[in-house]
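Figure 3 (text version): structure tokens given as input.
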């Protein structure tokens, strides 16, 4: 028997309030926890508005747990929602002065703008959803969303629905998402409501979702998943080995390996292989990967050595216990740029951990050996 499970994001709606709203990777963990709690090994995801980036990242990371993906009013970057800082600032003025009055119905549901009863309901919806402080914090986190680079890694059947005159998220956002996800179908309908169950074609939207989810579908390529790769190695290892001699160097490497394996377990990383004095590991959440690398750099120092680390998030090919693909090469090249005790990440990682509380310092655009183009590189501050 099919089931429908909904959940409010941590800190909003019916969920408990929290001191800090989580970033996308923590929300992804929450989604997985909800599925686990309900005994759902696999589900079709319906991601609406800001829920679309979360759903897309989950589908790319756990394709075996997502049988299909429906995205409504979606976007890959925040500028499709608020194109300028001034537009976002104007929304914050509304939040400070009128949140809870239902005035935002003018944008979210223009077809019901003159419906007094609906506006009262919408006002209650605003008040129950979050207080003004939480709304502003949520939107600040959302303003960092940029997932365009990972959308090609979504390999599950995908339907993207968008109304052509959507007053909240520009239709160009939906078109962009559909163009980036391989094989995605775009259903563009007339209308200006951002709320999918309102408007003249609400039934058409529901019918399209039902047909998409109950009809035939293609096989899911679960041998390719979105993952964060981490590479580490010991700085000046050759000189240190010569200084210590073989036996003492071997003991040092054993201690080094033990620390990294302990920290990997702490942050739910998966060791793929060791490369002499280095490690190659993967994570299903980029923020955990960054925090793990920072922790390793700190905990290794008492051994009298320093490591460097690099991380990148991208589509990886799962080959038994091994992992391959261009994302792996990028991660290795990023690590090679790092200095002693430095953790470098690609711009993709930085974008995906928005709202996590991690700090990054720009290191400029860098060429990566054997990788086309230039890549934005950042140093993680923990």
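Below: residues designed for each position.
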């Amino acid at each position: 028997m099919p089931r429908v499970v909904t959940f409010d994001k941590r800190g909003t709606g019916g969920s408990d309030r929290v001191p800090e709203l989580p970033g996308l990777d923590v929300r992804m963990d929450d989604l997985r926890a909800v599925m686990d709690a309900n005994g759902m090994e696999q589900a079709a995801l319906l991601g609406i508005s800001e829920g679309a980036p979360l759903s897309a990242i989950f589908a790319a990371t756990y394709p075996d747990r997502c049988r299909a993906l429906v995205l409504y009013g979606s976007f890959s970057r925040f500028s499709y929602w608020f194109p300028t800082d001034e537009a976002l600032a104007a929304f914050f003025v509304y939040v400070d002065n009128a949140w809870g009055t239902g005035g935002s119905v003018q944008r979210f549901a223009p077809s019901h703008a003159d419906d007094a009863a609906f506006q009262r309901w919408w006002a209650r919806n605003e008040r129950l959803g979050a207080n003004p402080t939480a709304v502003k914090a949520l939107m600040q986190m959302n303003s960092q969303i940029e997932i365009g680079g990972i959308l090609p890694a979504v390999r599950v059947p995908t339907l993207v629905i968008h109304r052509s005159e959507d007053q909240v998220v520009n239709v160009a956002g939906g078109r962009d998402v559909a163009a980036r996800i391989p094989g995605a179908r775009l259903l563009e309908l007339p209308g200006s409501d951002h709320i999918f169950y309102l408007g003249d074609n609400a039934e058409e939207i529901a019918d399209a979702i039902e047909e998409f989810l109950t009809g035939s579908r293609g096989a899911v390529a679960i041998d390719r998943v979105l993952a964060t790769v981490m590479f580490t190695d010991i700085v000046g290892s050759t000189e240190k080995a010569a200084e210590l001699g073989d036996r003492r160097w071997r003991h040092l490497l054993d201690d080094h390996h033990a620390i990294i394996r302990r920290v990997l377990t702490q942050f739910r990383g998966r060791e793929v292989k060791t490369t002499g004095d280095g490690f190659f590991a993967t994570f299903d959440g980029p923020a955990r990967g960054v925090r793990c690398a920072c922790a390793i750099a700190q905990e290794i120092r008492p051994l009298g050595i320093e490591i460097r680390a690099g991380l990148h998030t991208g589509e990886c090919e799962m080959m038994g216990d091994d992992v391959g693909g261009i994302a792996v090469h990028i991660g290795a090249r990023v690590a090679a740029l790092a200095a002693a005790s430095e953790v470098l990440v690609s711009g993709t990682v930085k974008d995906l951990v928005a709202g996590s509380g991690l700090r990054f310092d720009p290191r400029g655009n860098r060429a990566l050996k054997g990788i086309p183009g230039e890549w934005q590189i950042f140093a993680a501050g923990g």
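The longest strand covers residues 307-319.
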